[in-house]
Amino acid sequence: MRPIAQDISDFRELREKGCIYVDKTDILHALIRDPGRKLYFISRPRRFGKSLMLSTLKSIFQGRRDLFAGLAIDTLDYDWVDYPILQFSFAGVKATSLEAFVADFRTRLEESFADAKAPWDPDLSPGANFRR
């Protein structure tokens, strides 16, 4: 019997360990492929799989088709291109002022750009770095 993961929110780890995964990749595919939508607000209660869903999207956008063998999206029309993914969390931010928050956020952005192997110019504003 395959294990049920209760504390794994990383899609890659979940799949590599062979844990049970409730396949909702057909829904994620529909979100990704909807040409009329540019923004989504996805609200879910605490402990309801938000991190796992984002991790699943990250694996899709990194072109990791190998992780989706046997899942719905593997049979659907998708190009599996590896896109740079910028990921950061505000969970550990303990800023006591706007200036401290901006400095912490800038550091997190720089780290996220580095993780994604995306170019970062320290002489540009964060917004200008995104537009490059």
From TrEMBL:
Alphabetized InterPro entries for the sequence: AAA-ATPase-like_dom
Pfam families according to UniProt: AAA-ATPase_like
Annotated ranges, domain AAA-ATPase-like: 8-114
PANTHER family assigned to the protein according to its UniProt record, in alphabetical order: AAA-ATPASE-LIKE DOMAIN-CONTAINING PROTEIN, CONSERVED PROTEIN, WITH A WEAK D-GALACTARATE DEHYDRATASE/ALTRONATE HYDROLASE DOMAIN
Annotated protein name in UniProt: AAA family ATPase
Organism whose genome encodes this protein: Candidatus Spyradenecus faecavium
UniProt lineage: Bacteria, Pseudomonadati, Lentisphaerota, Lentisphaeria, Lentisphaerales
